[in-house]
């Protein structure tokens, strides 16, 4: 018995391959009422940070209706810091729609999410998008996709994926790879979903099992648990039991249920096996918990939540310039905001400290915490943050630190420098395989501490061709001493006072600064280097324009145009222990600590 009226899919794509455009077009062409109004509303309040970074941060749910079948489409974040969330989303759905750019083909970043999907035995559909591009090479791209599937260990069912060629932007698609065959409809995509993605099993007569996979919060109804009804039926007014993660149970009455319609949520009275819904009425409902009937308590296996491994101090801005730019600057406001974040972000921890104006905030990694900081800044908050530190833990009397499993895909000419750099950072290589076409895959176990500051190094080491993903592996006994690595530096322009941070490849010895191509060095800049064991500051007293030289000394410099302005995470990597970032709605400045 199957719920033929439902399909649950997750949509995955590399940045900019057209996921959002495609989902919007599916919504437009579906029989979902008001889809145009909803799209206009979403365009207005969509997350600016997501747009800028080109990454999906918030998992979003869009439900479209096609020929009487409801298709729930879960948007999936693509970064390793959100690996736990990706895994939970993959458990809610029965298939995935992989969107691939018809010119760029498979990008290694897609791999991380696709691998999780294949591991869950999900059935894929491939949409080769942007077929309208003159440079499109659909045939080769499909071959690449096939290779990737094989490499990731796809089984026979998964390898028989249907391919639809589309131009999401034009609202056209076709089963043929000839751009001339494009039809002004998304029907082939809808039909492939209905035909290939399995409908959920209908066991709605059995006892209820609803599991919370994501959290949301809203001022009117409080905490909301989003998840899938895996079995049975849930109704408003039902007396149910919530099995908590700690093994205890709590009874509650279902006060509100929400279904997804287009981009909106609407109250519903009942939901059945296979439905993706949101439930409110239980104040401390949490990810992984199961709702069952009071007389048939049978929790589902606990879902994976990533452990926080990195912490930072957040404090009220006490710099001399405090309060000039921010709207929300007081300890009370900052604390309220952090607490609100906890309502929905399960990998985040916020702890009070001895002072009422500072908190220890722990999260999954640099990106995870940076996104919180950036979001607060954009909302008008002003604060300071310290250098990130890994979280140590005592296990059986042994001091331990977090280790990450790092997977690197790189052209083989860079493997030597990567292996060297990671061994300096106390990484242990677990595996090395050739993946064909001159590409290597390297797997390391690295103390999380050793990864702070590594991304920038890695990118320059591999000239941007390397792909690195890392996920928390386990806590292991602490490695003694400093974890070395390439030295980092930050260039802080004091003449503008704007403290733009630029990147430096390394400072090999006092006075000589090797800069990344793209870095501008000029008089009046302070070059601050920080490594674990020695900090130094070099004042650039004289800057000379020189070409073809990639080193700068106190009175000599190389200048290559367009300096790269570092992202917040990169700035965090460059911070010294006695520095903090002053974060305001207008800017992010690196300052000496005046705690
Ligand atoms: P993120 O959510 O930011 O990861 O990106 P995305 O995958 O959702 O991509 P998005 O839909 O934002 O599209 C990225 C860019 O590609 C936009 O500028 C789109 O206008 C463009 N685009 C999307 N679909 C097509 C297409 O079919 N053809 C062409 N030529 N451009 C497209």
User: Structural class of the secondary structure composition?
Assistant: alpha+beta
- Sheet with the most strands: spatial strand order: 12-11-17-8-9-16-13-14
Low-pLDDT runs of 5+ residues are 485-519, 522-565
Distance between the termini: 65 Å
Strand coverage percent: 35-45%
Number of strands: 35
The ligands found in this model are: guanosine-5'-triphosphate
Radius of gyration: 25 Å
Q: Portion of residues in helices?
A: 10-25%
Summarize model confidence as the mean pLDDT: 79
Number of helices: 14
Biggest sheet features = 8 strands, antiparallel
Principal-axis shape equals globular
Subunit structure: Monomer.
Protein name: Large ribosomal subunit assembly factor BipA
Main location: cytoplasm
Subcellular location: Cytoplasm
């Amino acid at each position: 018995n199957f719920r033929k009226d439902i399909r649950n899919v997750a949509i995955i794509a590399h940045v900019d391959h057209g996921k959002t455009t495609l989902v919007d077009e599916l919504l437009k062409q579906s029989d979902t009422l008001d889809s145009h109004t909803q799209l206009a509303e979403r365009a207005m309040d969509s997350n600016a940070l997501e747009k800028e970074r080109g990454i999906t941060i918030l998992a979003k749910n869009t439900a479209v209706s096609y020929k009487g079948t409801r298709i729930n489409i879960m948007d999936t974040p693509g970064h390793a810091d959100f690996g736990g969330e990706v895994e939970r989303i993959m458990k809610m759905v029965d298939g995935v729609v992989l969107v691939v750019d018809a010119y760029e083909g498979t990008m290694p970043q897609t791999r991380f999410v696709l691998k999780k999907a294949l591991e869950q035995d999900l059935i894929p559909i491939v949409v080769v998008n942007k077929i309208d591009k003159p440079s499109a090479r659909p045939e080769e791209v499909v071959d690449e996709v096939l290779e990737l599937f094989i490499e990731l260990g796809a089984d026979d069912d998964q390898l028989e994926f249907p391919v639809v060629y589309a131009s999401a932007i034009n609202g056209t698609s076709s089963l043929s790879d000839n751009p001339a065959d494009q039809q002004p409809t998304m029907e082939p995509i809808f039909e492939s979903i209905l035909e290939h993605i399995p409908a959920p099993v209908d066991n709605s007569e059995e006892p209820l099992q609803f599991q919370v996979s994501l959290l949301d919060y809203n001022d009117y109804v409080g905490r909301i648990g989003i998840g899938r009804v895996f079995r049975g039926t849930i109704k408003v007014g039902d007396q149910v039991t919530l099995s908590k993660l700690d093994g205890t149970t709590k009874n509650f009455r279902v006060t509100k249920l929400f279904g997804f319609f287009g981009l909106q949520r609407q109250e519903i009275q009942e939901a059945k096996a296979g439905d993706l819904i949101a439930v409110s009425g239980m104040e401390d409902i949490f990810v992984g918990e199961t709702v069952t009937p009071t007389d048939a308590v049978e929790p589902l296996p606990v879902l994976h939540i990533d452990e926080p491994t990195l912490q930072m101090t957040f404090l009220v801005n006490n710099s001399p310039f405090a309060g000039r730019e921010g709207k929300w600057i007081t300890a009370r406001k900052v604390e309220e905001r952090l607490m609100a974040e906890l309502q929905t972000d399960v990998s985040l921890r916020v702890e009070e400290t001895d002072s009422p104006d500072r908190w220890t905030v722990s999260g999954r990694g640099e990106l995870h915490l940076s996104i919180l900081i950036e979001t607060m800044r954009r909302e008008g908050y002003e604060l300071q943050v310290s250098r990130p530190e890994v979280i140590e833990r005592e296990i059986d009397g042994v001091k331990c630190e977090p280790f990450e499993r790092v997977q690197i895909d790189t052209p083989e000419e860079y493997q030597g420098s990567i292996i060297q750099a990671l061994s300096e950072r106390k990484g242990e290589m677990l595996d090395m395989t050739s993946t064909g076409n001159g590409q290597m895959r390297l797997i390391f176990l690295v103390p999380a501490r050793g990864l702070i500051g590594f991304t920038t190094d890695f990118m320059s080491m591999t000239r941007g061709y390397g792909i690195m993903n890392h996920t928390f592996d386990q806590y292991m006994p602490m490695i003694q001493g400093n974890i070395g690595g390439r030295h980092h530096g930050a260039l802080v322009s004091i003449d503008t006072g704007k403290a733009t941070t630029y990147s430096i490849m390394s400072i090999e010895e006092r006075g000589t600064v090797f800069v990344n191509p793209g870095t501008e060095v000029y008089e009046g800049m302070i070059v601050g280097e920080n490594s674990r064991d020695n900090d130094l500051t070099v004042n650039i007293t004289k800057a000379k324009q020189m070409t073809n030289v990639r080193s700068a000394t106190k009175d000599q410099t190389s200048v290559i145009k367009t300096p790269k302005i570092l992202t917040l995470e990169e700035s965090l990597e460059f911070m010294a222990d006695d520095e903090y970032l002053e974060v305001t709605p207008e800017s992010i400045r690196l300052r000496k600590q005046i705690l």
